[in-house]
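Can't attach files on this board, so I'm pasting raw text. These are the components:
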Amino acid sequence: MAITVLIPSALQAYTGNQSEVQVQASTVGEALQAVVATYPELRKHLYNEQGKLRSFVNVYLGEEDTRYLQGLETLVKDGDTLMIVPSIAGGSVSVLEHEAVQRASLDNEEILRYSRHLILPDVAMEGQTKLKAAKVLCVGAGGLGSPLALYLTAAGVGTIGLVDFDVVDLTNLQRQVLYTSQDVGRPKLEVAKERLQAMNPHVTIRTYETRLTRENALEIFSDYDIIVDGTDNFATRYLVNDACVLLGKPNVYGSIFRFEGQASVFYAKEGPCYRCLYPEPPPPGLVPSCAEGGVLGVLPGIIGTIQAMETIKLILGRGEPLIGRLLLFNALKMQFRELKLRKNPQCPVCGQNPVIRELIDYEEFCGMRGEESTASVDVIEEITPTELKRRLDAGDDIFLLDVREPVEWQICRLDGAVLIPMNTIPARMHELDSAREIVVYCRSGKRSAQIAAFLKAAGFRKVKNLQGGILQWSDEVDPTVPKY
Ligand SMILES: [Zn+2]
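---
Top answer:
Structure tokens for the assembled complex are below.
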């Protein structure tokens, strides 16, 4: 049977950039085995050490999750398409308090402002009053949070909370449309509040300039009707999910990577939660972040506005929310796909016998504080850019190993360096001379530390990591090397 397996962009680095792989197979399991036989690098991303499919890898046959068919035993027929959906993270429902809607009313200026809503039968005075009574919390005021907050404010959502602790950075402006060049260096929430308030003074903007944690999440969330997840890391995404399940609130989810996006509404009262889809996060480093993998600036605009639309539908109690459905968007193909999501009866937080009854340590859960990773990075010797420059100028024999991606190499590089992208190091290790001193570098020093640890474990004794990477080199040694 000829089967097509669709590879998501996060995993295409391991399939020679192929987005589709044709294989011969009669079951889902055989198809996946055929794919990893062709692309062995992919194996550890799909299977664990025991050879079992990893729990954060979902395989869909058409629009059905194969976990709810016969799993890996599910039969496939000629022409079928399987889709690998890794984490990158019907019917109308009403989420507002009746009393709050009763209290809200519009003045004449608001009636004029919202007139295009008021003449729309599905919104009308009743809907606009619900929007005014609604309280929506946006977690993150970045790429997704910008369009989301702008549209919710324009639409007249009465109370909007924003959680973020960042300052505006020049690299944000390519996609975070709340901010301008003049805002670089200012706290995001200060700027966001000014901009949103200028757009619509009838809306109350509350800001929480803090990192969302297990200690503060329930307290902050408890005052809102809907939580919108605009975060970019797994620890916060699981925290948002679990807090929403525990409080019985809907979680409007969106995530983006390169040219692909996902959106859904996780509302455990009515359907599945994020953990029903992905019980566990991928190990750190397996799925790159937008800072490492890049993202096209328009993509968060599209996904963030979808989140705004879903939020407004939930408030109005109109239409069919994305509950129980995962929307997948591919910008290069300009294609939307939809997958059915089912509530998992064994879900650790919203299932029949939940084991998570309070918020946990999400950084530990996501492996960000794993003892292994800190220990292995600790023993790696570092060299500062200033010291490296001094030694290179003195004519010392040092092999400069650049482990970034080719697109980063095009932006800038250190003189005399050799490029071997980190994913290809295991296969190309024989190109390195273990007798020579090797200094590994990347953009910030994080990826190169992992590779230095890997090389050390493989027997290279004279390996050092360039502290702070290209960024610190640009600061300390050569400001003509651009930062990115
Ligand atoms: Zn669940």
